[in-house]
Amino acid sequence: MAQTLLDQLSAMTVVVADTGDIKSIEKFKPRDATTNPSLITTAAQMPEYQDLVDGALRFAGDRGVSVAIDRLAVDFGLRIQQIIAGRVSTEVDARLSFDTAATIEKARWIIAQYEAAGSSRDRVLIKIASTWEGIRAAEQLEKEGIHCNLTLLFGMHQAVACAEAKVTLISPFVGRILDWYKKDTGKTEYAPSEDPGVQSVTRIYNYYKKHGHKTEVMGASFRNLGEITELAGCDLLTIAPNFLGELRDKTGELPRKLDPERARASTEPRIAMDEATFRAMHEADRMARDKLAEGIDGFSKALVALEKLMTERARGAK
């Protein structure tokens, strides 16, 4: 019997479920799972998860809805950990993206909640936006044994800074890069190998392997199946349930596109990174600048929507 694309992909890449829907995770049985404020907000509106919402509100009590939201993210993570064998990513409030100290404090609180519930910190990745301030927070957290997933990553400068900070994992956003280039150029179609998001992740992967960085690369935010298959061999790929279903239902040969040996033979030069270089490269990279700001704004708006939902739920419970 011919192997599915999902089976073949899983043999060379760690497949991660990009969802807050526990039923989807049960269906596909990935090793790891990632969530974000938008996914948690969507899941929190589903009837089957109202017990988690109510539990988080009870936990927060009079401490406010922000505590309830943080606890809800942890409770989703704990529920997901019962299904998967690996790690779950839980995101720090995106509104703290430019505050190093507050990000560190929030991450420590999240990990403390997981550990109090009996989870090991090795099964949790704290998601932090790839701002200079977020990367500095992650650097400190990694020294404390709190592993981080640097998200909303669009530029090479972000990737290099994350690697030098020795963060555990980065999540370059393939589809959002494609979105920007489509809008900027007016070009409506890209072949998978010419997709700007695919090219960005390929370059980062090659750079990391070439220069011996241990930080894992997890491609994220896909717009089509071709982006996923073109990155076969990447350390990890976090994939939404609809694409996991397509990969499971398709057969045919899936060649490895990213390979550590080939990457080590690449000619990608080392980039010396400090804050001035980071900020100069960020300012010069319109795409990364636009998409990072847009991503932080989007996740912040999702949190505001979740705060409204939780506040209304709390009032209804009284």
CATH superfamily: Aldolase class I
Can you list the strand order of the major beta sheet? Answer: 1-2-3-4-5-6-7-8
CATH level-two architecture = Alpha-Beta Barrel
Radius of gyration, taken over Cα atoms and rounded to an integer in Å: 19 Å
Account of the 3D structure:
It is a single chain. The chain contains 15 helices and eight strands. It has helices spanning 5-12, 22-28, 37-44, 50-60, 65-81, 100-116, 132-143, 156-164, 174-185, 196-210, 225-229, 241-249, 260-264, 275-284, 286-317, and strands at residues 14-18, 32-34, 88-91, 124-129, 148-153, 169-172, 216-219, 236-239. The chain has an eight-stranded parallel β-barrel, surrounded by nine helices. α2 (22-28) links the parallel β1 (14-18) and β2 (32-34). α5 crosses α15 and α9 (174-185) packs across α10. The relative contact order is 0.16. The model has no long low-confidence stretch (mean pLDDT 96).
